[in-house]
Write a structure and sequence with these properties.
The complex is a heterodimer. Chain A is an alpha/beta fold. The longest helix of chain A is centred in the first third of the chain and has 16 residues, at 86-101. Helix content of chain B is 43%, strand content 11%. Chain B has helices at residues 28-33, 38-44, 48-58, 70-75, 100-107, 109-122, 137-152, 183-190, 219-231, 233-236, 270-277, 311-316, 335-349, 355-372, 378-389, 399-414, 416-425, 429-438, and strands at residues 86-91, 127-132, 168-173, 214-218, 247-254, 260-265, 287-291, 300-301, 325-330. The chains are: A alpha/beta, B alpha/beta. At the A-B interface, strand 4 and helix 2 of A face helix 13, helix 14 and helix 15 of B.
């Protein structure tokens, strides 16, 4: 059945074809629905339109008898748009020619070459030959904007996407334009390197090769890479990412727009912290007492080592739901009494039932953020809060002892600093605040980085939410904390002190009391010391499985790299351990584990169904067709 | 007292410059002696709508360059919603060849301020901003002195003339960019941002300064308002042409004997302005070309001096009335060089926001430079022609790009042989004649 036109739909004609779109849609977005390409540089569907690059010129009637910018013109009933008249075609070709007047044309060595809108548009909309014989203007280049991002000012087309992003989305004052006219260039504010944790998004936004990742720079050409749409493993937000591999190396991570979770943005941790995957020091085979061993011997040594001792297990923050289920079965069975901790997790208790979804923040009229520096704890949720405030007019109440980046909004922000009575008292006093009179209210709470009792903060937040009719969102920090909590894997303890045998999965130091240490990680880290047994693990770019993000959404990993023997999938190793211990872990594969997990915890019910087929990654530049 | 180079109240049509030259006109006392601020007092007792209607009926059109009907613009202001709304006065007079606003501010600052205050009341605003060109130091000082006098006399303040309607004027000095004369770039600059034009809509009447309803008018436009309110729209419509009522100031400069600011009745021909008011060319010289409305207006050859000063006639002659800056060139001027000078100005003043103006202006400058250096060819003329076309007709975000295009287009249109001579034969007959004359 075709999509029903929305109630307040507006029907217009573009190049002779009729389309009905919601009121307020821009002409450029309506054209996308008809697969008519209106080229754009400055326009981006997540940024406010400015009409600066003038590349989207089309003829619109009724209207003045000259080309109009499709990116700033909202649709109107009965409007006729023509993108293919001689005037409009020439106007766009002229603009492209202008963009190339001073462009260095260094496509053969440019990272953007092959996925460059300037290249693509020039082929599709530009003049086939060049009339430019003037000497090109030059700028100093490349300019490091930070240790992660390089700027090539000669390639820049001054679409101002990067500066507008910094202004509108990230609320940072780090990037600006200097000089004017043809001498204009993008530069750091006051020549200070970019500090923002959101800086990397400008690389995705840049429609030419002006902003490039220094981590990936000159690493590979776009057409040499394969990519998968996966999930970031760095925190509990669960941003969708595109992982790019070349010759079995993870060479790049970019955003993969999912409006339900990340709104198209990722933070710099997710974007740049991937190089360990390609480390030459990667562990590939197990070791026992420092010597290479077979998996068989290593697992025997592990089981022998822990037998009869008080066992402690430290799990990495991005433990998958599947691994969590298997570990839970082990600590419920043969390893009963073992203590399980997860470094970096919050002290927030397990969430009960449905909590606020990230996307609902945009509908909130008031957002209360308690005991969390969201920019650090849950970076991309922080961007969504900023969007709710700056683009949807939500008001903000911050309950935190320090100044936060959210304080930068000039009005409608109320900052409470908890006093001697702690968060409980601060939240009680807050209940009658005028901002809370208008709903929906979203109550987000963290754990004050462990400085106060997480349970008490959660209870106080729940009390506030109940009093004002708000909806709660616990801000878990560790990637799959919510999934591990749903399976009751994690206990109250925060460390392994006192355990005689420890299994460290991922980063973490063994306690002084440990007489036997097994480490299971993809790198041997200094804090691991000299473990008795060392097991290699796959990375987030290789392992199968799923994460539960902080809102309770279960998302599947789509690893771009294979697990190459002797490396083994973690769930496979855990099954092996289970069978050695007669723990009844007789699953035949990951799908069965997922089904069992779905039964074990209602929160993981989504694991019962097969993962949705991998969607083709959406290039950030074009974006989905929507108003 | 500034030296008077221009009209000062001898003729019947000298409405604005009527009292110019009167001792003490710049002071509040002197201005009030001549009936100043009586109109404001009367206006504050009128219905705001009646003021708007009066201005509408007068047929007054904006003097900043676009020539939009002032009363209509006033009526675009949405009804008051309780929030702030502004009158922003464009005194960023940076159009080459234009100095009429300066003439007004230096001679009769109080007339300007009275017009601003009447406009503020008419559109129900309590706060007016004057955005004055940074280089205008003397006019700035005079305005500040005049505003100080008004505050002291309580004409500015909570209860001007005892009426319950607060009025205030703030002056903001620009930092030296031509683009700030563009209304939306002016607003950006006023808000403390980079002076770059905004995409319209929304127009300033809906979302102007600080995203609030804003009326933007030129100094001369508002300076005319007190006269209209005092004498009535019917009296004003006795001057000018059917579609172009009233009088206006033309700043005449260039190769003429008596450069200055002249108040003319709209509709007189440029022969009158250039040959009579401005004294015509120097001895032995011929007028070659003139720009009737500031450097942005397309150049016209001397043979078109018969064109009249009203917007319609100028539009028919493929030029525009613009900001009233009439620049005159005589036969010692090489039109390619002149084009180069003007073009360099537009390229230098491009804000850099939109592509055609940022790149096209600079590309055009470099192309003309090449032609001037004797390295051009017929292809360069074709490229130049293409560049100017690519700057016009909505290709650019604001009018600056169009103006750069017009500079080239009109010069190439009216003086093709000079461009041909430079580009193809690599000589300049004007320069040759100049050299011969000096030898």
């Amino acid at each position: 059945m075709p999509d029903q036109p929305p109630q307040d739909g507006v029907t217009l004609t573009i190049d002779g074809r009729s389309v009905t779109v919601p009121k307020g849609t821009l002409v450029v977005e309506a054209a996308k629905l008809l697969s008519i390409e209106v080229p754009v540089f400055c326009y981006h569907h997540k940024l406010n339109p400015v009409g600066a690059c003038r590349l989207c010129l089309v003829e619109i009637s009724p209207g003045p008898p000259k080309p109009q910018t499709a990116c700033t013109t909202p649709v109107a009933e009965g409007m006729t748009v023509r993108t293919n008249t001689a005037g409009a075609v020439a106007a766009r070709a002229d603009i492209l020619e202008y963009e190339l007047v001073n462009h260095p044309l260094d496509c053969p060595v440019c990272d953007k070459g092959g996925e460059c809108p300037l290249q693509d548009y020039t082929f599709r909309h530009g003049y086939p030959t060049s009339r430019i014989d003037a000497p090109r203007l030059h700028f100093e280049k490349p300019v490091p904007l930070s240790d992660k991002i390089a700027l090539d000012r000669e390639r820049c087309v001054l679409c101002y996407r990067c500066t507008r992003y910094y202004d509108e989305i990230a609320w940072e004052q780090e990037l600006t334009t200097d000089q004017r006219g043809v001498s204009s260039f993008i530069t750091n504010q006051f020549d200070r390197p970019l500090q923002s944790i959101f800086s990397g998004n400008i690389i995705d936004l840049c429609p030419v090769g002006a902003l490039t990742s220094r981590v990936w720079r000159f690493e590979s050409r776009p057409w040499d890479m394969d990519h998968t749409a996966s999930v970031c493993s760095k925190c509990a937000v669960g941003c969708n990412v595109t992982m790019w591999q070349r010759r079995h190396q993870l060479v790049r991570v970019t955003s993969h727009e999912n409006d339900a979770v990340d709104d198209g943005w990722i933070c710099d941790r997710g974007r740049f912290d991937y190089t360990e995957v390609n480390s030459p020091d990667r562990l590939r085979a197990p070791r026992v007492k420092g010597a290479h061993a077979t998996w068989n011997d290593a697992l025997d040594a592990l089981l022998d080592g822990v037998r009869g001792k008080k066992l402690g297990i430290s799990v990495r923050q991005d433990l998958t739901n599947e691994e969590a289920l298997l570990l839970k079965r082990l600590v419920d069975g043969p390893w009963a009494g073992a203590r399980v901790v997860m470094p970096r997790r919050t002290r927030i208790p397990a969430a009960e039932g449905e909590t606020l979804h990230i996307v609902e923040l945009e509908r909130a009229r008031c957002i209360v953020v308690i005991a969390s520096d969201t920019a650090d704890d849950v970076p991309v949720v922080n961007l969504r809060i900023k969007k709710a405030v700056s683009k949807h007019g939500a008001r903000l109440i911050l309950v935190h002892p320090d100044d936060l980046d959210l304080d930068r909004w000039p009005h409608g922000v109320h900052h409470v600093r908890p006093g001697a009575g702690g968060y409980a008292e601060a939240l009680r006093d807050l209940r009658d605040h005028e901002y809370l009179k208008e709903g929906p209210v979203a109550v987000l709470y963290g754990d004050a980085q462990g400085s106060e009792d997480g349970g008490a903060i959660a209870a106080a937040a729940a009390g506030l939410a109940q009093a004002v009719g708000g909806k709660l969102m616990p801000l878990y920090r560790a990637t799959n904390e919510r999934g591990a909590l749903a399976l009751s894997l994690l206990g109250e303890e925060t460390d392994l002190e006192g355990c005689e045998a420890v299994l460290i999965i991922g980063p973490g130091a063994p306690p002084a009391s440990a007489r036997f240490t097994a480490v299971w990680d993809f790198l041997l880290r200094p804090e691991h010391g000299e473990p008795d047994v060392l097991l290699p693990s796959p990375t987030f770019a290789e392992q199968q499985g799923s994460y539960t993000n902080l809102e309770g959404r279960v998302q599947f990993l789509r690893p771009p790299l294979h697990v190459e023997p002797p490396l083994r999938e973690s769930w496979d190793v855990l099954l092996d351990i289970g069978q050695r211990l007669d723990a009844g872990l007789d699953f035949l594969g990951i799908v069965q584990i997922q089904k069992a997990a779905a039964q074990a915890a209602p929160a993981l019910a989504a694991l019962a169904g097969p993962p949705a087929p991998a969607a083709a990654p959406t290039a950030v530049l074009y974006g989905p067709a929507r108003p | 007292m500034a030296e008077l180079r221009g009209s000062h109240g001898k003729a019947k049509h000298h409405l604005l410059t009527q009292h110019f030259g009167t001792e003490g006109l710049a002071t509040l006392k002197g201005y009030q002696k001549l009936g100043g601020y009586e109109t404001l007092e009367r206006a504050l007792g009128m219905e705001p709508k009646a003021l708007v209607d009066e201005v509408k009926a007068s047929g007054l059109r904006g003097r900043g360059g676009a020539g939009f009907a002032t009363g209509v613009k006033w009526s675009f202001m949405p009804p008051p919603d309780g929030g702030p709304r502004y009158v922003v006065v464009n005194a960023d007079e940076s159009e080459p060849g234009t100095s009429k606003d300066r003439y007004l501010m230096e001679n009769s600052p109080h007339m300007v301020l009275e017009g601003i205050l009447i406009a503020a009341f008419a559109v129900q605003s309590h706060q007016a901003w004057i955005y004055i060109r940074g280089e205008y130091d003397h006019p700035y000082q005079m305005l500040m002195t005049a505003i100080g006098e008004l505050r002291e006399a309580k004409i500015l303040g909570d209860r001007p003339f005892g009426k319950d309607y607060a009025l205030d004027i703030q002056v903001y000095r620009g930092h030296g960019a031509y683009i700030c004369g563009e209304e939306t770039a002016l607003l950006e600059s006023l808000e403390g941002k980079r002076a770059q034009p905004r995409s319209r809509p929304p127009y300033p009447a809906a979302k102007g300064a600080w995203a609030r309803p804003t009326l933007l008018n030129n100094i001369e436009t508002l300076a005319t308002v007190p006269w209209i309110i005092k004498h009535g729209a019917a009296e004003y419509t006795k001057f000018g042409t059917e579609k172009n009522r009233g009088t206006r100031l033309l700043s005449v400069s260039g190769n003429i004997r008596k450069p200055g600011v002249y108040e003319i009745e709209i509709g007189v021909p440029f022969t009158h302005v250039i040959m009579e008011l401005a004294g015509g060319p120097f001895e032995g010289r011929q007028i070659k070309a003139f720009w009737p409305g500031g450097s942005s207006a397309k150049v016209l050859p001397a043979s078109r001096m018969d064109v009249t000063t009203d917007a319609e006639a100028l539009a028919a002659a493929d030029s525009m009335a613009g900001s009233g800056g009439c620049m005159v060139a005589d036969d010692t001027a090489c039109m390619v060089e002149t084009t180069y000078r003007l073009l360099k100005f537009y390229a230098y003043e491009s804000c850099g926001k939109c592509t055609p103006c940022r790149v096209g202006g600079n590309w055009a400058v470099r192309t003309v430079a090449k032609i001037l250096a004797g390295e051009g060819s017929r292809l360069d003329l074709q490229i130049l022609d293409k560049i100017q076309a690519g700057l016009q007709d909505g290709r650019c975000l604001c009018g600056l790009g169009d103006s750069a295009g017009w500079v080239v287009q009109s010069a190439m249109n009216h003086f093709p042989e000079e461009f041909e001579e430079h580009a193809v034969r690599h000589t300049c007959s004007v320069k040759r004649e100049r050299a011969a004359a000096s030898a």
